[in-house]
Every structure is written in structure tokens, then in C-alpha cells.
Amino acid sequence: MTFTKRLRDGVRRGDITCSVRIWTRPHVRVGGRYRMEEGEIEVDSIEPIGLPDITPVLARESGFLGVVDLLKVANHGRGRNIYLVRFHYLRPRGKRQP
Question: Considering the entire predicted model, what is its pTM?
């Protein structure tokens, strides 16, 4: 899973722990670990949701200003299925928290 540059610090801080993805099919699995430039994220859950489930609160929880901002980033491919992915960030081994 990749994140737009403006979201990466929030993911690393633990402020962002979910992401709305519009895919043809799931690209991650629960328990899977996916690299970031530093550390990894581990997927806690993935569930299909509908467009009405994307609320302003969920958009902000995902690191966006609102629903339109989220959809501009999330809706960039051929996919039409919407997934809510919850995850947590894992720091690189040997790195201490500042």
C-alpha cells in the first residue's frame, strides 16, 4: 500500500490508521505487512463499504480535508469497489521513538 506524500507523516505518527481504497479487488490482506520508505504498516482489517459510508469524519480520520479531497486521491484507477482498510504503523527495527 502506498500513501500520498502528504499523508506519510501522519501514518508514521499513528494519527492516520485507516485508508479508503477504490480497487477492482483487494490488494492487501489482513495481517499483511507493507513497506513504507521507513517502517511498515500492518493491515488489521479490510471491509467493503459503499460511497455513502465515506463520511466527512471518515475522510478526516484517513488524513483528508473532506470527502471530495479523499475521492480525488482514491479514485484514480479502473476500480469501482470501495474498501476500508484499517492498519497500524510499525517502526523500523532498531529505531527509537523521538
Answer: 0.89
